Protein backbone atom coordinates (compact mmCIF):
# COMPACT_ATOMS: atom_id res chain seq x y z
CA UNK A 1 0.00 0.00 0.00
CA UNK A 2 1.49 3.33 -1.07
CA UNK A 3 0.09 6.17 1.05
CA UNK A 4 1.45 9.67 1.06
CA UNK A 5 0.95 11.87 4.11
CA UNK A 6 1.40 15.61 4.45
CA UNK A 7 4.18 16.60 6.82
CA UNK A 8 3.14 18.02 10.19
CA UNK A 9 2.45 21.74 10.11
CA UNK A 10 3.49 23.85 13.08
CA UNK A 11 0.97 26.44 14.34
CA UNK A 12 2.03 30.06 14.49
CA UNK A 13 0.56 33.54 14.13
CA UNK A 14 3.26 35.40 12.26
CA UNK A 15 2.39 38.59 10.34
CA UNK A 16 4.15 38.88 6.99
CA UNK A 17 3.91 40.43 3.52
CA UNK A 18 2.51 38.48 0.59
CA UNK A 19 3.27 39.48 -3.00
CA UNK A 20 0.53 38.33 -5.40
CA UNK A 21 0.06 39.00 -9.12
CA UNK A 22 -2.20 41.90 -8.07
CA UNK A 23 0.13 43.52 -5.53
CA UNK A 24 1.37 43.39 -1.95
CA UNK A 25 -0.73 42.73 1.14
CA UNK A 26 -0.33 41.86 4.80
CA UNK A 27 -1.38 38.40 6.00
CA UNK A 28 -1.00 36.10 8.98
CA UNK A 29 0.85 32.82 8.74
CA UNK A 30 -1.36 30.26 10.53
CA UNK A 31 0.82 27.18 10.19
CA UNK A 32 3.99 26.19 8.37
CA UNK A 33 6.40 23.38 7.52
CA UNK A 34 9.24 23.05 5.01
CA UNK A 35 6.85 22.19 2.19
CA UNK A 36 4.10 24.76 2.58
CA UNK A 37 1.93 26.97 4.72
CA UNK A 38 -1.57 28.18 5.48
CA UNK A 39 -2.26 31.91 5.56
CA UNK A 40 -5.17 34.04 6.68
CA UNK A 41 -6.17 37.46 5.38
CA UNK A 42 -5.07 37.00 1.78
CA UNK A 43 -7.54 38.36 -0.75
CA UNK A 44 -7.94 38.17 -4.52
CA UNK A 45 -5.81 35.11 -5.22
CA UNK A 46 -6.74 32.04 -7.24
CA UNK A 47 -5.68 28.43 -7.09
CA UNK A 48 -2.58 27.84 -9.21
CA UNK A 49 -1.15 31.36 -8.87
CA UNK A 50 2.43 31.88 -7.79
CA UNK A 51 2.96 34.11 -4.76
CA UNK A 52 5.93 35.20 -2.68
CA UNK A 53 6.12 35.49 1.10
CA UNK A 54 8.43 38.12 2.55
CA UNK A 55 9.31 36.94 6.03
CA UNK A 56 12.29 37.67 8.29
CA UNK A 57 14.28 39.30 5.47
CA UNK A 58 13.76 36.26 3.22
CA UNK A 59 11.55 35.57 0.22
CA UNK A 60 9.84 32.21 -0.16
CA UNK A 61 7.87 31.47 -3.34
CA UNK A 62 5.03 29.04 -3.70
CA UNK A 63 1.90 28.05 -5.57
CA UNK A 64 -1.61 28.52 -4.19
CA UNK A 65 -3.11 25.02 -3.77
CA UNK A 66 -6.50 25.94 -2.28
CA UNK A 67 -8.57 29.01 -1.40
CA UNK A 68 -11.48 29.27 1.06
CA UNK A 69 -12.94 32.53 2.40
CA UNK A 70 -9.88 34.49 3.63
CA UNK A 71 -7.53 31.52 4.01
CA UNK A 72 -5.22 29.93 1.48
CA UNK A 73 -2.88 26.97 1.38
CA UNK A 74 0.38 27.16 -0.50
CA UNK A 75 3.04 24.66 -1.53
CA UNK A 76 6.54 26.11 -1.58
CA UNK A 77 8.45 25.93 -4.86
CA UNK A 78 11.60 24.90 -2.98
CA UNK A 79 11.56 23.56 0.61
CA UNK A 80 11.91 26.32 3.18
CA UNK A 81 15.10 26.33 5.20
CA UNK A 82 14.79 24.37 8.44
CA UNK A 83 16.14 27.35 10.40
CA UNK A 84 13.46 29.64 8.93
CA UNK A 85 10.66 27.20 9.82
CA UNK A 86 12.07 26.92 13.35
CA UNK A 87 12.14 30.72 13.71
CA UNK A 88 8.55 30.97 12.50
CA UNK A 89 7.45 28.24 14.91
CA UNK A 90 9.05 30.02 17.86
CA UNK A 91 7.96 33.47 16.74
CA UNK A 92 4.37 33.06 17.86
CA UNK A 93 2.89 36.54 17.98
CA UNK A 94 -0.61 35.97 19.35
CA UNK A 95 -2.17 34.35 22.37
CA UNK A 96 -4.42 32.22 20.15
CA UNK A 97 -1.43 30.50 18.56
CA UNK A 98 0.35 30.22 21.90
CA UNK A 99 -2.32 27.78 23.06
CA UNK A 100 -0.96 25.25 20.59
CA UNK A 101 2.72 25.89 21.15
CA UNK A 102 4.63 24.32 24.04
CA UNK A 103 6.90 27.38 24.08
CA UNK A 104 4.03 29.20 25.87
CA UNK A 105 4.17 26.82 28.83
CA UNK A 106 5.93 27.90 31.98
CA UNK A 107 7.53 25.77 34.64
CA UNK A 108 5.74 25.96 37.98
CA UNK A 109 7.88 26.06 41.10
List keywords for this structure.
mainly beta; 109 residues; six-stranded antiparallel beta barrel; Thrombin, subunit H; 12% helix
Q: What's the helix count?
A: 2
Order of helices and strands: EEEEEEHH
Could you tell me the strand content as a percent range? 35-45%
Indicate the percent of residues in helices: 10-25%
The gyration radius over C-alpha positions equals 14 Å
**CA-based shape:** globular
Largest sheet: 6 strands, antiparallel, barrel
Helix and strand topology:
Elements: E1 10-20, E2 23-32, E3 36-40, E4 50-55, E5 58-68, E6 71-76, H1 82-90, H2 95-98
Antiparallel strand pairs: 1-2, 1-4, 2-3, 3-6, 4-5, 5-6
Structure commentary:
Helices cover 12% and strands 45% of the residues. It has 109 residues and is mostly beta strands. Strand 4 (50-55) and strand 5 form a beta hairpin. Strands 1-2-3-6-5-4 form a 6-stranded antiparallel beta barrel. 23% of the residues are buried. The protein has a domain at 16-91: Thrombin, subunit H. It has 2 helices and 6 strands.
In short:
With 109 residues, the protein is mostly beta strands. It has two helices and six strands; from the N terminus they run ββββββαα. The protein is 12% helix and 45% strand.
